[in-house]
Amino acid sequence: MARPPSSNRRSTAERLLDAAAEAFAVHGPHATRLADIAATVGIRRPSLLYHFPTKESLYAAVVDRAFRQLGDALGQAMTREDDFRARFDRIIGTFIDFIDEHAELARILLRELLGADGPGRTIVAQRVAPILDIVVRFIQRDGRKVIREGLAIRQAVLQITSSVVLRAASGDLSPLLWGDEDATFSLAHTLFFAEAPAVQDCERAPSSTTTTPPTGPSAKPTDPPTDPPVDPAIDLIDLE
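User: That's the sequence. What structure does it adopt?
Assistant: Structure tokens below.
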């Protein structure tokens, strides 16, 4: 029997990767059955094996494709001709959108990070670390004039991305744990930039107002001056 045209083979392979990503995220690579993935696409198991000879090769292809797509999307966000803050926000927005649209990737990523011998662990290491390196170098190079001095950039990036991944992977529990509003941008700005966001400046304005203490016989002893409040973002950085 003649093989179908190559364009059809690519289409079937992409559909298999989509179905496999969802199955692996829900059941894990060990409990997932290739026959079920094939049935989701409307083919039989032998036809699936024509495209991916083993479950391991299918799983590897799922993880590899996801991180290639993420790397391409982040690369485009970094190379736009805007100022650093605009590109910084675009990177965060791109990552949030990608993870929200590929919630199965968030669950797969968590499985691989928590498991000691997952079949896709090597690919996660090969794909995640280089993407992280590129983002860190971008921030170090283009954001050196505005980034908070002494910031542990790599750890700060991981703190932001980990929260996004955990929220996407938590599914229905997300509103209970993170609330209804997404504070990722606010958290990122607090961690990375020396200048506090305008809303925080407004909230802190009353505490910075000074009054003249009373003088004369009616004056009461005043409490000794206290240290200024500690910026919680700096505490996070020190702990890292």
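The chain has twelve helices and no strands.
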